[in-house]
Write the structure tokens for this entry.
Amino acid sequence: MSTRILIVAEHDGKKLNPSTAKCVACARGLSGAEVTLAVLARDAAAVAAQAAQLEGVARVLTLENPANEHALAAVLAPQIVALAAAFDILLGPSTTFGKDLMARVAGLLDAPQVSDIMAIESARRFRRPIYAGNAILTVEAAGEGKIVGTVRIASFEAAAAGGASAPIEKASVSATLPTHTRFISVSAAKTDRPDLQTASRVVSGGRALGSAEGFRILYSLADRMGAAVGASRAAVDAGYAPNEMQVGQTGKIIAPELYVAVGISGAIQHLTGIKDARTIVAINKDGEAPIFEVADYGLVGDLFQIIPEIERLIS
């Protein structure tokens, strides 16, 4: 008997977020899984077409509503609950979007939630990290009801796109949308750099940069590399970088192809957020810094001399 899995797609109204393809990869790890993607939007056509191309997706459901123009968890959750009857497991990415949304879905369904799923072993058995990623816990949900989960996207390679074409169906649900929550505005730093959680290259800075002005040296290097920019908690707490740039246990968990840690000592909380990076480069004047224990390549020296030299050498 197949396990019916519904994945809620993360997108910006035009483009599917790579986190969704990683959720598909997670779901495909379960033998016999039947994967459906749900796209909630004002106009879902463009995103649904991209979702239908992901390998392993059996079908795509679109829920179009003017209220879905902005991804408000309070608005999306009742609609997802109205879709839930036909599914055994409901998944979203363990991103800001997914963490906000899936907890509400679980609450409305009165269903158990499993967070940061690293593997699905059966319809009710999952693996997830604990103790800052130093141990892996196997969780089994009791009973027979639905299960809601968030997928640790750093643990998966994105499902391939372009080799499939799943059918796209328009869904219609009866759900009472809240009136106490409404979209007012978005206040966020505008940048042409890649999204931190999905970027293949990330340059991060620590407290050693000394100030918000000091971070400009990283922005310049990142622009030359086509990389996103992150920061350690110490740098964020010191006011050198905004909160949305924080990488680590209490920030964003990422798994880029290349991670460059500049002036970051390597506290365990930070290492938790980057341990799945493919290649780690550390630049620090302290040759005994813990970051060098996990780095694939290390440079000991003054970052304010090293970074401009690296940037000069990048063609």
User: Anything to note?
Assistant: The chain has a mean pLDDT of 93. The longest helix spans residues 96-109.
